[in-house]
Amino acid sequence: MAGTIATSLSGLAHGDSFEFKPSQRYPDPAVEILDPSFAKHRVFSASVEQLSSGMRWAEGPVWIGDGRYLLVSDIPNNRIIRWDEITGTTSVFRQPSNFSNGLVRDRQGRLLACEHLTRRITRTEYDGSITVLADSFETKRLNSPNDIVCKSDGSIWFSDPPFGIGGHYEGDKASPELPHSVYRIDPQGGKLQLVLDDLAGPNGLCFSPDESRLYIVESRAQPNRLVWAYDVSPQGKLSNKRKHIDAEGPGALDGIKCDVDGNLWCGWGSNGSPNADAAKLDGVMVFNPQGKPIGHIHLPERCANLCFGGPKRNRLFMASSHSLYALYVEAQGAV
To answer: How far apart are CA 186 and CA 118, in angstroms?
Structure first.
């Protein structure tokens, strides 16, 4: 397989593995240039690679550079999977994971996790113990924390839609106690602050390279899925809400990441509507800082979330339904 051997998790448990045939031709036709400005980000001699398969719903990847491995949530299987860059092997990092979703490292390198089952944000300490950072707001339980980012000032931001409590597949079915919201954990004292509660299904979120803007996916917006941009004050207040991306059809946005040039790399797929062509939509869409689509990385599965990693932060890891994919690009992750 074009520079890598995909490992299967089917022998470990609970997921179908799917074969993937990478392109033998350079440039990889799966990397589509929608605007000439994207050409500089495509590596001519790099192909989309499948690193692992055998998950049920892959989400929330995070690169652990000092260990040279990637962690990814396999939500329905209640586990976190570890892919090792050195050996190319895949193993279970944590099980049970409390149906974890979004993962990120804080500014001290500790793992932060959004947990559906316990409806909380946790931090894994250096000794492996777990600290609960947030599980309620004004005495009411959080819904099911979904995606999470950590700002350079140490503040932690996360989205809290009710997706994980909507059924028994990704957590325990329960009635929401709070609106769909985005929260901020203050770095001084750890107080939980409500950032906004006026979006339908707030999902993926990330900061611009200079952290002056916050992008938030509204994954249940009608008639089309949206990304909103906000100005961020030093105190963590949002202002100047404006529409940044409109899916303009059956496309569905999920997790998002920003590169150092301000482009948004977005997990992409079908919104499930009858007229959606999932085979054409699935993958990653790339938008320039003005919100114009410039590139499309086509995958055989819907991409839920992604991250940049590798020693040069120029390898795009894509958590996509049953599998984990990767592609070297001429771009570097902003964080």
So the answer is: 21
Selection from 33, 4, 14 nearest residue 296 by Cα: 33
Is 228 in contact with 244 (CB distance < 8 Å)? Answer: yes
pTM above 0.90, yes or no: yes
Burial of 266-289, coded b for 16+ CB within 10 Å and e otherwise, reads bbbbbbeeeebeeeebbbbbbbbb
Give the Cα separation of 235 and 321 in Å (integer): 37
Q: What pLDDT shows up at residue 2?
A: 38
Sorted by sequence, the CB contacts under 8 Å of residue 151 that are 6+ apart come out as 157, 207, 211
Give yes or no for a contact between 207 and 258, defined as CB atoms under 8 angstroms apart. yes
Residue 319 pairs in a beta bridge with: 305, 324
Residues of the chain under the 70 pLDDT cut: 1-14
* Per-residue pLDDT, 16: 84
Cis peptide upstream of residue 27 (ω within 30 degrees of 0): yes
Instruction: Give residue for tokens 């990814």.
Output: 72
Residue 185 and residue 133 in contact, taking contact as beta carbons nearer than 8 Å: yes
| Strand 226-232 versus strand 238-246 pairing type | antiparallel
